Amino acid sequence: MGMKERRVREKEVVRTKILDAARALFVAEGYEAVTMRKIAAAIEYSPTAIYLHFRDKEAVINAICDTDFLKLAARFRKIAEVADPIARLKAAGFAYADFAMRHPNHYRLMFMTPHPPHSPDESVIEVGNRDQDAYAFVLWTAAEAIELGLLRPELDDAELVAQIVWAAIHGWVSLRMTKCNEPWVAWRPQKRSIEAVIDVSIRGILRGPAVSAGRKLKA
Amino acid sequence: MGMKERRVREKEVVRTKILDAARALFVAEGYEAVTMRKIAAAIEYSPTAIYLHFRDKEAVINAICDTDFLKLAARFRKIAEVADPIARLKAAGFAYADFAMRHPNHYRLMFMTPHPPHSPDESVIEVGNRDQDAYAFVLWTAAEAIELGLLRPELDDAELVAQIVWAAIHGWVSLRMTKCNEPWVAWRPQKRSIEAVIDVSIRGILRGPAVSAGRKLKA
DNA sequence: TCCTAGACTTAACGCTGTTAAGTTTCGGAG
DNA sequence: CTCCGAAACTTAACAGCGTTAAGTCTAGGA
Fold it and tell me: Is B164 on the interface with A (CB under 8 A)?
């Protein structure tokens, strides 16, 4: 009976081999360096064997990114316990930046290269579920901050607020990644720098400290 | 006598043909779509002819980006006339975002893909000259804002301030570019969105309105 | 008239992702 | 036990890429 299941299990083994070999290449040298032939050589199969397990090269690398991004989701799940939405937003910002800097090639592929409209059905990640989808998490937190009246009254749109803070942190991350070795920009220490970015973003959206609602400059 | 100059002139013509053909491909379809063979076909030369005018494919595309980026520099030169550094920073932010959205492929190549340490001698752009180098422009403006005491006292580092606002706007631009068609993020109208990003960044770095120096929360 | 320098082409190399066709292996049915 | 069919895998190839070595052709200068 269990014959079929054994076959499935064996196939799963090869699939995992492929993913592990591809991941090693990917984290070390990035998308371009991952070659069907190199993966094949690493696992001692022929290049075409990979196509029995994945539709194409993109599918291989998407599988890697999907599984690895669940680790970020796990960290977010912890952060979700923070009650204060502002503190939560800050914590998420740090976690996001830290994750990105630790997995630069994953990050680059997922957030810095354009893709054909991602078909959600073939991904593990559940869109809109804030335990799996980082954007949904930020959106949820922004909505809560608005509801508690913590933000400036113009910022009544959670989607907009989420996009603002996401942009700031993503901008910091991606500039660091692509321009880290440029001689014409003097990067400050990573910790100090990301702290400043998060601090400025939060202050920028926050309702001013003890300034009564009516007293705002229009400039 | 003028024979040599004529030869030089003729060579320049071919060089320009190459650049024009390559630019057309580049703006329409991006780096990957620019192929030595396609350029060659467009100008009715053999692919190898291109190598008589450019070291390699990268050199062709760098030449395009360099010349086109001088247009951004021209806009910045106008903005340099704005006296108030805060207003100048805002104006530069809008100009930067506008330029990026109008030349997405240029922008992607220059700011969203990693390069081997750029050798400055073979580029037209003069690093550190704020009339040609956009980063130098922002740096200069940030330094002036600090000097005039317009920013929060912790932000006494022009380089850091420049990086913060650059990150925010670059983040907005690059997210828009790569994730513009994602169904899971509801982008707000471009104008409203970039205005919010710039507004939040500026408010985040600005000394609070009429809050005396001693009264800041440490949280 | 001959020579040389430069512009250009042809043919090729080694690499890529991908596919059509062929081989090998093996559990299950007759 | 034999045969079949399906699944796993390989070999060989295609079309494309950037790049280069070698050869051709043209025209100005001696």
Answer: yes
